[in-house]
Amino acid sequence: MSGIAGFYQNKYDFKENPVWPNKLRAMKESLQEVPSGTTFLYPHAGMVSTTDSAFFSGLGSIFLCGELYNANDLRGFLVSYLQSGETESDAGIILNGYLAIGTGFFKQLNGIFAFAIYDERRDCLLIVRDPLGAKPLFYQQYEDCFVFGSAQKALFAYGINPCADRESFCEVLGLGPARTPGHGVYCAMREVLPGHMIIKGPGYYRDEAFFTLQGLEHVDTAEETRDKVSWLINDNIKRQLTSPASLGILLSGGLDSSLVAAFARQELNKAGGRLKTFSFDFVGSKENFKPSAFQSSLDRPFVGIMAAALGSEHTYLECDSLTQADYLDKAVDARDLPCMADIESSLLYFAGEVAKDCPVVLTGEGADEIFGGYPWFHKEELWQKNLFPWSYDLSVRTALLKEDFLDSLGLTEYVQHAYTKSLAETPRFEGDNETETRRREIAWLNIRWFMATLLNRLNRAGTAAGLLTRTPLADIRLLQYVYNIPWALKCENGKTKSLLINAGQDLLPLEILYRKKSPYPKTYDQGYEKLLAKRLLERVTDLASPLRPIIDVTKVKAYIAGGFNYGMPWYGQLMAGPQMLAYLLQIDYWMRKYRLTI
Length: 598
Fold this sequence. Notes:
Blueprint (H helix, E strand, L loop, with lengths): L3 E5 L10 H13 L6 E4 L3 E5 L4 E4 L2 E9 L2 H8 L11 H12 L9 E9 L4 E6 L8 E5 L2 E5 L2 H7 L7 H10 L14 E2 L4 E6 L2 E6 L12 H19 L5 E5 L4 H17 L2 E9 L2 H4 L11 H11 L2 E7 L1 H15 L5 H15 L4 E3 L4 H5 L8 H4 L10 H5 L4 H7 L1 H14 L9 H32 L2 E3 L5 H8 L3 H4 L7 H6 L6 H4 L12 H15 L12 H9 L7 E3 L2 E2 L2 H17 L4
Parallel strand pairs: 13-14, 13-16, 14-15, 16-17
Antiparallel strand pairs: 1-3, 1-9, 2-3, 4-5, 5-6, 6-7, 7-11, 8-9, 8-10, 11-12, 18-19
């Protein structure tokens, strides 16, 4: 697992006490089982990285987790500011750009990153997170020190005890697996907001945005719009093809991943490279699959069509029910929190299998949030609800909770407040009519909440499995441009994601181009359902289970006896059935692991 961590204060010298190198070592070990990378201790700051993505100058140092996609552009920009040879690495580009220009340089960065800079000139620490929030970065003021890390476990390794309060459980039970932007779930812990930087110095603390999404008038014609979207997608993919000899694509057979694969194939053809594709499914899917409103078809037939069209070296990966269930706890270990239940446990398993064969992959993640692919962009009864459209029915979430515990939480009010606050932050354009304003609000909620959750899921699973994932459709330039395109162009002639369809018109088979959206695959094995039910009953009937003050055991037994409802959404397109039971198992494991109490 790659990551960064560290601490800062300016009252005493860290080098005078051996406890501080030990803390740095513990923080590094928490992020990677076999520690490597770089450690550095200043009188007032200590920083670690589990990779070699660090850079030092006589004026400061940077520890980076992530990568830049516009490094060459930035090198050219910095020529007039710096001597040659100082911007070979991404970390060197960022540090020297900051030292030469200041924090204003950060707005030019394109990539996924979390980094920490110690500025020796001003004796201050900066921690910075990418605009889309793909890379996590947590922090907490603890006693004399400002402590940070790219995973919460790094802060625990420093010596901060995990603690949960009412807000923690409102986050997990009311909003999870999403989180309120900036909320670290654990008591007093925060997360750097996407596109923000925290500056901590002698006697001051500042939280500032270096990127803000803007609501602007769209002035391009329909043809110009379609051409620019296609160009941006292709340019993103070119920038992310750092190894043209061989490239991996996570291929679902849907429009988004297929479009990424097709553009990548064009670039690889020029370089004579190989394209490897990987698809995910579950043992027994063909026999057990039942079409629903949320998933009308299996991926495999469409994957076969697309892999043949690409001429790729394709690998079909399958996960069995026992593995998927066993990985529920491992997913919590990777995320430090309950997460997307069996969706995340299987992704973690699949990422590990892909990493054995291909260290870097591109995916189609982010397209639905940016281009309006989800049902709540289109169904008025969903986007008119005065709550998060992917999780509007809180009764699904509260059905198994004890009444007294639920009353003590104020969960409904908490979720409503989170929704209202986010809605008020929507980047607006005064020229929008009422309908376009509401569509812009839905887009903003998806970007701020849903996309951040999925990008974080992908990044944390990949990082834990040793797989580097890149998302060319979740790009900040593409986001800023598409956010302001009127809905009539985003959904031209009623075609969902018509801009992506246009981009793939001459590249994709018709079956792929017009395939109905299908979410990340799920298992339909009834044996998996029974396995989850058995494990949950074992845990909730254990008198030592931390779930007992939360969950009504009688309700759990009745729910399991009544069968599972695949038609009721719990979160997005996750059903209130096996996924919800799996989430409860994750909560139980999370509370046991960190010894959390109500």
